[in-house]
Amino acid sequence: MEFESVSGRLREVRVVTRPTADGRSSVSFRNFVIEIPYSRDLKLNIGTLLAVDTMEEGTSLILEVADFIPVHYGMLNLDGTIPKEIRDQVMEGVESSWKAGESKEMWVDVFAYPIGYLMTSSGFKKGYVPPLPGTSVRILSKEAFRKFVCYEGGVEIGKVLGQDIPLTINLNKALVYHMGIFAFTGSGKSNLTASLIRRVLRYTDAKVIIADISMEYAVLLIDQILEHNSLLISTERYPQNPSDARRKFLRSHVVPEELDDIREKIGDAAESIFRGQKARYLYMPPEGSVELTYGDLVELVKSQIDDKYTAFAQKPLFSLLLKRLDQFMRENKISKESVLDDTVIPLLEEASERAREAGLRENSSIFTFISSVKSYISTESPESNEYDVEKLAIDILDRDPASSRLFILELPNLDEARELLASLIEHVMSRRKRAFSNLPILFVLDEAQEFIPFDTRQRDKSELSSSAVEKLLRHGRKYHLHTLISTQRLAYLNTNVLQQLHTYFISTLPRPYDRQLVSETFGVSDALLDRTLDLEVGQWLLVSFKASLPHDVPVFFSAPNNLDELRRGLQ
């Protein structure tokens, strides 16, 4: 293993304990204080990796730098009790020492924490062995850092801060285990999201569906819409004339100020989209006009049993129907969300026969109930030329290489957006279960707090969308259905959803609760998460748990500028 020429010594081991973000328990972190001699040539950065000897011979513990502070011996006991003249004289001497560059009276206190890896002669392995205080602490070289952190042969998503090396990840594996982007307003969430989508389209065969309530991704990815087989789908109609559609596009979409000089080029690209038949109007059926599912049928049968007006002689038969329906769904692996079809008719006919054997008259409510269900099933829905959620789901699942790969769903009405997303997820998952395929599909949810809030309500359809997204994250992976979510606040999200994400991209999170939540989820030191407050726009902390990186190590990096990539794409 290669190390830098500069080394330090482990001076102190601290255990810091604090309450968890929810206040129900406590969490502890090990922090290590290392002394490294100060020099003007010392290259030390947040995220630098260190190695310190442990109690096991030939085994070193890997630490990550969370903070560092230069220290001068002359300043240790300098406080207000010392006369000002003496303080000034001491500080002048200290200043001279700093300018001189090297002195045995100066050093750097480095605060680091273990990342759960040991270094042995045979390589790296997970684990923890207590380090030996007072022993040497070595700095991993740039090449050693790259081999440990970056995925060999992976996709470049930016540059590691302080190391100036490309950060490469296993993008396919990151997709499989779901991703999240979390940062305060203005940190570059949309830029990073668009940049990652570009790489998904370029380096994988995945299809991408973007739920866009901010009306910005059609601009941020307009060159990708032209380059790939794509569909721009809106719940609002565009004019038939491409020139008029172009004008409406520029009026209704967010065009970043940095792109004002190429606004006409964006307009030309939008007109090409409309001329190339890459835009669709998405028809939303009237509220309440939805297809019955097996879960709905179960609830209808239960309501008949609970109804006080149902004759006592018929309730056992409704109970028997409910039992047979449950058995039927178990045997045929039918979920409650599956749409009701004619496969249930033999079950209904069996219930009718049992009712006749019991001597019930033909005008009994059970016969009326069964007859109405059979009538609903046998009635075919009229064919429609409108492009609806079902046709969208069919296009998304189409395995033809010539089919569309990028779908941008423009959903300015929030309640409508939640209902549509829930319906689309249900259709896609239901069809994928009936006709399995390993073609990966990525759902991108920008402003995720609107779709998966912690406090859901049935009235605004948030309960509907949150339940559907949670189901997608819990069970989608085995059907090659994946998710990328982006939001400003973790505190406002469904916590069941957060537990399913294995890769986090984190930038400035001003609220302590949000940082503490990430810290507890991945076991990352609070001191490291606090460094995200110093990140500039476009700089991120990548934290991945057995997903995008070869080892579970937090990495600070700067993401590429999506607007620059857009400009090049429109050349």
From TrEMBL:
Catalysed conversion reaction: ATP + H2O = ADP + phosphate + H(+); Couples ATP hydrolysis with the unwinding of duplex DNA by translocating in the 3'-5' direction
Protein name: Putative ATPase
InterPro entries tied to this protein: HerA-like (IPR008571), HerA_central (IPR002789), P-loop_NTPase (IPR027417)
A GO molecular function held by the record: 5'-3' DNA helicase activity
Family: Belongs to the HerA family.
Signal peptide: none
Boundaries of every Helicase HerA central domain copy: 155-401
Annotated organism of origin: Metallosphaera yellowstonensis MK1
Domain of life: Archaea
Pfam families the UniProt entry points to: DUF87 (PF01935)
